[in-house]
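Long-time lurker. I teach an intro course on protein structure, and each term I like to show students one example going from raw sequence to a predicted 3D structure in token notation. This year I'd like something fresh instead of my usual example. Would anyone be willing to generate the tokens for the chain below so I can use it in lecture? Attribution to the forum is fine with me.
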Amino acid sequence: MGATIGGENMGRLRVLQLIRGITIGAEAGGGEYHALRIARFLDRTQFEAGVYAVWSHNTPLENRWRSRLQDWEIPVFGLTPTGNGMRAAWSKLRREIKGFQPDIIHSHSEWTDTLNAGLRLARPGGFRHVHTVHLNQRWQSRPYLRKIMDGVLLPRLIDRHVAVSQAVLDLLNQNGIPADQSALCFNGIDEAAFSPTFAGQQFLTTPLPGRAPRLGIVGRLTPQKGHDTLIAALERLFQDRPGSLLVVGDGPLKAALQDQVEAARLAGRIHFLGVRQDVWAILRHLDLFVLPSRWEGFPTVILEAMSQHVPVIASNIPGTRELVHDGETGLLVTVDDPAELATAMDRLLGDEKLRQRLSEQAFVHARQFTLQKMAHCYAQIYQSV
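-- Reply from a regular --
Happy to contribute to a lecture. Here you go:
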């Protein structure tokens, strides 16, 4: 372990990122992707990074991520088959943690926060415990646990509570987390994405369907992201305008959203691309990026669009407002309002000068949020606990 005895450093701090899985864009989402990027960008002279992924889905996407982590020299533990059940996953977690011997366990979701707290109860004083809160609305599927977990257990069992945006930090503090136990580390993207040469290094793996202008949305197909609102808005917009929508991502709502597209008679204009490895190249081919989420923490995908000079329309919600300043770095619309969203898309598609102004200002604003700064922020937190 990376302990310090008598002022002498005995080795690097071992930090284990605790996540649900590594099928990013399908069963796993932004919180898991966030954890993998922390592991990759931590200073290897100071930290030894590991990832514990609770569940295995045994898919080609999972295998690609395992290979990528191997290339990054980040060990992956866990990956218990989902059919084995919770007891098997818990036993494997405790067993493999003894092998890695982390100094710090860092969780990134309601599910893994619960496991992190359980480890604290099972081995009090054995590790330090950190969690990152990625959303300003938690426990959506189990609201009865909100007061117990966020109000009672986690404040007592977690050493440091990290927010990805000022909105999330304010919420943590309002819920009773003291300032000296909380911290703010903004999400970020690799600073290389802002380089003039970056775009020219990105290539499509397959040609894109649809006709220009192309609109895009990237994210898991879940209620959070508001794909249904976007489809309803496009049912209005595409009555009078040419164009197509590219939907990048997968998730439990795929069949329902495809049914909605069929009912709206938009099957030839809305294209479900699934999980793609060439998202950066796809962004370069978009005329407009749309994210009508119902809740967010600090959506990294908006940063990615801004870095590639793609104008953005997003929901007027906490977290997102810290990136999209209405009329300055993009346009904000009311949550669950297809008519307002359609009007905003029509406005931008019809005004090239406005699109250019917003995208240029957004690029400048987004440059302050990098992975390198984020990793440095977490390094300071790990050292402080």
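Some talking points for your students: DSSP finds 13 helices and 15 strands in the chain. The first strand starts at residue 4 and ends at 5.
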